């Protein structure tokens, strides 16, 4: 099935906002066993919009459009769609009354220009917008189908999930063949090349390796029409789980911080943090999870040496001899956080994020992560290339991964 995604908006082309709508749609299609063949971004302007829609009509069976369905002068999608399908725009009185009622319910004044939202190409089907006002549009003829959605992400996501995905599923079912199936396994601490060496893929199955700052997501997929039976796909997923063991920390959208929180709660452990270069970033990541107060005791952001000494008990002799960015300092910071908060586990970060402050012995990107428990304390050294924000982000992830490995019984260094 040849699919094109068209995102409309000059602000995307200017780089002012990221095109998260495309990411959502591509992932939504992947869950159906589909993928776009083309992705086009076009400004809210003619003749460019018309040219893009004409090209999409000529080459794609399914066109997904986001943006340009509001009531401002630059919302040109409706008339452009009508021209692309050779149809007139018509006023939908029932739809107009529904829009007016929504405005009234929100205490908003309805302008004359707002009536444009109730004008649809002749024969178009309304795609209800339960998260906003402007409805989506569904058009179909012998050449294919087109689904237009507002550009506001939450509105687009709702319309795709509730209205468009079921239509695409029905279209696939009508063509026969097994529907697509996929399971996403989330891994951390191992590169995609190492994972690829450890995974066997059966005939009819596909593996996608999706690396990100926190690890690698494995998408184990049976594409639409594959001869891989449901039971075979399920056995394959379990075989991969068995092969990778604790490297797999979750499934689907599960996050590392959620898994850490669950492990701390199940074991009745409390955590304290001591952060230097990450400046509270590890703490912020952990407390994104609802109920984090059950296991996060507190934390200290100790950037200056004086703060490390007075708030965490790092010895002045350690700082003079080894420096703030050292194994010894990371260990003392982790111990100090654990002791001062009366926690079971202490986690620390210290390093040089840059762009300045590095030396030949301690270059920019050098990071130490410390962990302390009643059984002892350990530290790992890492060296991260890149900009300041990249070093910081990777340090946060590494600290979480170190904590996860400890709680999962995986050695802090080396393969799982």
Portion of residues in beta strands equals: 15-25%
Outline type: elongated
Strand order in the largest sheet:
2-1-3-8-7-6
Number of helices: 14
The first-level CATH class of the largest domain is given as Alpha Beta
CATH architecture of the largest domain: 3-Layer(aba) Sandwich
Helix content: 25-40%
Assign the CATH superfamily of the largest domain: MoaB/Mog-like domain
How many beta strands in the DSSP annotation? Answer: 17
Average the pLDDT over all residues and give the rounded result.
93
Report Rg.
27 Å
**Structural class designation:** alpha/beta
Low-confidence sequence ranges: none
Report how far apart the termini are.
Answer: 40 Å
Question: CATH fold name of the largest domain, please?
Answer: Molybdenum Cofactor Biosythetic Enzyme, Chain A
